Amino acid sequence: MRAQLAGPSVRFHARRRLSTTPSRRAPSHAEAEAARLKQAEEYCRALTRGTDHPAFLTSYFYPGVARPAFYALHAFHAEIAQVRRKVSKEILGEMRYTWWRDAVKSIIAGHPPSHPVCLSLSLAHTLHHLQPYHLTRLITAYSHPLPPCPDLADLRTFAQSTRASLMYLCLGILPPLPMRDGAKGEDRVAHAASHVGQAVGLAGVLRSAGAGEGPMGRSWQGGEELWRDRVKEVASAVREEVGRAREVLGGEVGREKMPVFLSAVPALVYVDRLEKAGGDPRVAKARGEDWRTSWRVWRAWRSGVF
After folding, report:
1. What pLDDT score does 68 carry?
2. Among residues 162, 108, 109, which one has the least CA distance to residue 132?
3. Architecture of the domain made up of 35-144
4. Could you tell me which residues come within 8 angstroms of residue 126 by beta carbon, excluding any fewer than 6 positions away?
5. What local confidence, expressed as pLDDT, does residue 4 receive?
6. What is the pLDDT of residue 278?
7. Global pTM value
8. What is the distance between the alpha carbons of residues 95 and 102, in angstroms, rounded to a whole number?
9. pLDDT of residue 19
10. 76, 138 Cβ separation under 8 angstroms
11. Pick from 89, 168, 113, 111: nearest CA to 136
């Protein structure tokens, strides 16, 4: 009899405990969207770190509010830059470039495709008003391959259309200069950034050559001697472009725009390492990056001199 009375009581208390357990609420639309954007940001950050470590080192010096946009822009550049390496036929590459052109239009219109880079770029455009001209200029530059034996002028034009465009976009996500500097100050900074962009782009060509990729990689048809001469010429041009940027700025870089100019530091470090490797990018690549690059970027930030 006691056992029969105990049974319902136990079941009653069990039901009461279950009924007081809070149910898991489904995330709201805003929460789901925030989670999706966070995942997109992590994707862009990982892609930037994996494909452009020198640029990734400078990201720590961008303001926190600008850092997601920085990763979005560099992830976009990485996606465009590796289109030709990922496709087996030229027509597939052209289709991919067309897709990205349409994606940029959709991003600017406020209807980004469901791609992590596009989602991050859309948020960056909402916050910083990205200039679509530079985004499409990047696509155009990579969709038109360089000649089999590009000269320095060809490589400068390529760097100007790719990396310099990226520098312009990065300037746009940083705080404006103080009012006392005015429009002339902004123009001077943009002019200097174009030289840094060319330096970074030319250094990138040399890095790619060390891996047998890019315009001076496996497609090179000018022979070993001409290739080595061109490497020396491009390495000298890297230093020259950084020097021009310093001249334009007159040795003064406002803290607001300094993160963009930190990109010159890894390029100079690489050229120094290339010189120690006898001017051979293949040897310089084998030696890899070292702690000095990070230290010199930090020192440039502290001193205000790149």
Report:
1. 97
2. 108
3. Orthogonal Bundle (1.10)
4. none
5. 46
6. 86
7. 0.87
8. 11
9. 47
10. yes
11. 168
pLDDT of residue 26: 67
**Assigned token pair, 152:** 């320095």
Q: How far is CA 29 from CA 32, 33, 122, 252, in A?
A: 5, 6, 18, 47
DSSP string, 211-253: TT-STTTTT--S-HHHHHHHHHHHHHHHHHHHHHHHHHHTT--
Task: Locate all alpha helices (DSSP H) within the chain, ordered by sequence.
Answer: 2-20, 29-51, 53-59, 67-81, 83-86, 90-109, 116-128, 132-143, 152-172, 182-210, 224-249, 258-261, 264-276, 281-287, 291-303
* Domain residue limits, the chain: 35-144, 148-306
> Among all chains, which residue has been given the structure tokens 């990226």?
166
The answer to whether 257 and 177 are in contact (CB under 8 A) is yes
* Pairwise CA distance, residues 124 & 275, whole Å: 39
How far from 129 is each of 117, 124, 126, CA to CA, in Å?
16, 7, 6
Q: pLDDT below 50 — which residues of the chain?
A: 1-6, 8-19, 21
